[in-house]
Amino acid sequence: MQIKTKFSIFILLTGIILISCNGRRGGAKSSRIDFDSIVVARHIPLLQENDTTLPYADVDISFTYPVKFRDSESLARLQQIFQGTFFGDSNYDALTPQEAVDQYLKEYTDRYQSLSNYYYEDKARIEGKMPSWYWYIMNNSNKILFQNDSLLSYAVEYSDYEGGAHGSYRITYTNVDLNDLVTLTEEDLFVPGYFKPLTEKIVVQLMKKYDVPVADSLLMKGFFTIEDIVPNNNFWLDGKNIHYSYNQYEIAPYAMGVIDVSVPYSELSDILLPESIISRYFLKK
């Protein structure tokens, strides 16, 4: 009876350990992340006059950032990555998230209001009519796309209108190895010499997406040239695919918008580094 009881306890403990290990999928550290957001919606007047009929910039900022993660040092590093990729300037690294948003908004306001002298010049040039191209729009936001114990992928979306025929939009991705707290590039995932075979795999997936039999037929769909379609390091990862985005004018005209293409990990096994995060955590047999 005593032997049977000890054996039952051993089986129970073994089961608990196995469940815990499977839940982490090989991650050595706890990677729970709590997030918060700072949201700003503001009309910034071009002129000092308080008149809503005069030009202004319509600004929307939504910054999601980590507030709880592992320990204070790890959290500081993760916040640094988020702020650097969102604001695009290392000068924001040492600021708190709220300070960074305030500084970003102030710098945008200063740049916009510095155009006021040009506004008066243009108004005089067109004989007192309202120069319509001084109404600006700016939106900047980020969103989490994928997260597990080892990987965090997110997007930063930026759009603006500053006069002219149309505005602009771009999306950029960041992938964070949560174990080492570093951002990932193609060189962290693929073997040397990956560029040409990965290019071919991307083109094949675009052919499938646009339902064309040969690569050159993509030109009939609006793409500039086949030579433009290359790995651009603007990707995000999930449990099954690597997802690339090509922003406006990168490989196709503005009217086609952002071009998205996904390549399954099963198609990449011949060019993946054995120690890459994809091989370690997503291609386990």
UniProtKB/TrEMBL annotation:
Protein name: DUF3298 domain-containing protein
InterPro entries per the UniProt record, alphabetical: DUF3298, PdaC, PdaC/RsiV-like_sf
Residues annotated as domain DUF3298: 187-266
Domain of life: Bacteria
Gene3D superfamilies named among the record's database cross-references: Fervidobacterium nodosum Rt17-B1 like, Heat-shock cognate protein, ATPase
Sequence ranges assigned to domain Deacetylase PdaC in this UniProt record: 100-168
Pfam families documented for this protein: DUF3298, PdaC
